[in-house]
Specification:
Length: 169
């Protein structure tokens, strides 16, 4: 069932982490002129700065999207203010403490929003398809019980005690 810890959930979380590492790598490559020739250069310190911000935000975004998507309650009214507060607070703190970290924070915020929207959408659809499957299963069970009761010359309407678990008086 949905929400179980298994291969699909872990692979999707791994995909979110891998996307953050890949984007960090792409943002760490820069063009550097060497002897009049422009070459690609990889900046390890820049990669670590990007990945150090992007990976934790990707994990938090995935977990938030997962829980919001599977929730049957209107979690969006609680999630959106919390997410905006988190992003605003972290960005303000990092910008004040280390102005050179604004670019990695921008990447992290974009990645956070993207993963949050995608995971919320995916797990909302998963929740609804699970609900549809459950209703179809219940309909099939009801039809089987009704058919069996008709074959046994019983009333096809379910007695009240079958639905509530208590005999009617």
């Amino acid at each position: 069932m949905f929400g179980e810890i298994g291969v699909p959930l872990l692979s999707q979380a791994a995909a979110a982490i891998l996307a953050s590492i890949l984007l960090s790598f792409l943002f760490s490559i820069r063009l550097v002129p060497i002897n009049g020739v422009t070459r690609l250069s990889f900046a390890r310190d820049r990669f670590l700065a990007f990945a150090g911000i992007a990976v934790p935000l990707a994990v938090v975004a995935f977990a938030t999207g997962y829980l919001t998507g599977l929730s049957r309650q209107p979690a969006v009214t609680a999630t959106i203010p919390a997410v905006l507060t988190l992003i605003g607070g972290v960005f303000a703190y990092v910008s004040a403490a280390r102005p050179e970290a604004r670019a990695p924070m921008g990447l992290g915020i974009i990645l956070f929003a993207l993963i949050l929207v995608l995971s919320t959408n995916y797990y909302s659809a998963a929740r609804e398809s699970g609900r549809l499957g459950r209703l179809l299963l219940l309909s099939e069970q009801e039809k089987m019980i009704t058919t069996r009761r008709a074959n046994m010359n019983l009333q096809t309407d379910f007695p009240a005690w079958m639905l509530t678990g208590e005999p009617s008086r």
